């Protein structure tokens, strides 16, 4: 399917679909644990960013990947400054600053592999955050001034500071979430 065909078709669908290398893939619903973790991250991002130049978006926000031509739905997205819409669209952003993915058994290889390679190609991206469903742990890739990426892991009791200045407290995000059914 071409990008234009996908965009026209996707807008008429009840469920979300991603376009990856010309192939359309249905998005599966998340487990209670996955959904709780998404809500916790987004709530903290939204609260921390209020009143500033950045804003948080939910998993319903479609993002365009310029290097591959893919269209994806991250679990969470932050845009700083004006939202830049993809040419000819009113619902696809081109300029995410932060992307968050909650890992699950079926998506983890893709989130760490091809999807991460795609995300790195977005010029505006400065933070990629992976959220574990197995244990209280956040993984953070931050773009350095020279374009390289710094990686760090923060576990229980830790705090993660994004390049936006937002601080994510691991224990707050995971409180009670690991007690819920999840796709681990």
Can you tell me about this structure?
This protein has 184 residues and is of the alpha+beta class. Helices cover 23% and strands 30% of the residues. The protein has helices at 3-10, 32-49, 108-112, 114-120, 170-174; strands at residues 17-20, 23-26, 54-57, 62-65, 70-72, 76-80, 92-93, 98-102, 127-131, 137-143, 149-155, 159-161, 167-169. The strands form 4 sheets. The protein has a 6-stranded mixed β-sheet with strand order 3-6-8-9-10-11, covered by helices on one side. A 3-stranded mixed β-sheet has the order 5-4-7, with no helix packed on it. A hairpin with a 5-residue loop joins strand 12 and strand 13. It is globular.
Can you give keywords for this protein?
single chain; 184 residues; alpha+beta; tt1808, chain A; 3-stranded mixed beta sheet; 5 helices; 13 strands; globular
Give me the CATH fold name: tt1808, chain A
Strand content: 25-35%
Helix content percent band = 10-25%
**What's the CATH C level?**
Alpha Beta
User: Structural class, from secondary structure content?
Assistant: alpha+beta
Q: How many strands, which pairing sense, and closed or not: the largest β-sheet?
A: 6 strands, mixed
Q: Could you state the order of secondary-structure elements as H and E?
A: HEEHEEEEEEHHEEEEEH
CATH architecture: Alpha-Beta Complex
Mean pLDDT score, rounded? 95
Number of strands: 13
Instruction: Report, as a whole number of angstroms, the end-to-end distance.
Output: 32 Å
Number of separate helices: 5
Residue ranges: pLDDT <50 for 5 or more in a row? none
- Rg value: 16 Å
- How many structural domains in the coordinates? 1
